[in-house]
């Protein structure tokens, strides 16, 4: 549906479903418009756009936490719940593998 192929995309989508209840139709419609306007967007750009769009529906008090956790999945590193995370080192993967 989202035209993504990397493991980190799968992990990000899983996190959106279990932590945030999935996507609103408005998010999907806006993402479809983004893809039409940006047909050469990289996987990272697509993932960041999905995050940006979904954050609009997150309660303000949780927005920073959600952004930090999901950005760490996209980028492979980041601060999550007060801990610095390095996913490639911790889990022996780069996140860019294809699924």
Tell me the total number of β-strands: 2
N-to-C CA distance: 14 Å
The geometry reads as globular
Radius of gyration using CA atoms only: 13 Å
| Average predicted confidence as pLDDT | 92
- Number of DSSP helices? 5
Please describe the biggest sheet, giving its number of strands, its sense, and whether it closes into a barrel: 2 strands, antiparallel
Going by helix content, strand content and strand pairing, the class is: mainly alpha
Enumerate the spans where pLDDT stays under 50 for 5 or more consecutive residues: none
| Sheet with most strands: strand arrangement | 1-2
Order of helices and strands: HHHHEEH
**Proportion in helices:** 55-70%
Features:
single chain; 99 residues; two-stranded antiparallel sheet; 2 strands; mainly alpha; globular
Short description:
With 99 residues, this protein is mainly alpha-helical. It is built from five helices and two strands; from the N terminus they run ααααββα.
Question: Can you offer a commentary on this structure?
Answer:
With about 100 residues, the chain is mostly helical. The chain contains five helices and two strands, in the order ααααββα. It has helices at about 5-20, 25-35, 45-55, 60-75, 85-90, and strands at about 75-80, 85. A two-stranded antiparallel ribbon has the order 1-2. α2 (about 25-35) runs antiparallel to α3 (about 45-55). The mean pLDDT is about 90.
Topology:
Elements (H helix, E strand, L loop, with lengths): L6 H14 L4 H13 L5 H13 L4 H16 L1 E4 L2 E4 H5 L8
Antiparallel strand pairs: 1-2
Helix pairs in contact: 2-3, 3-4
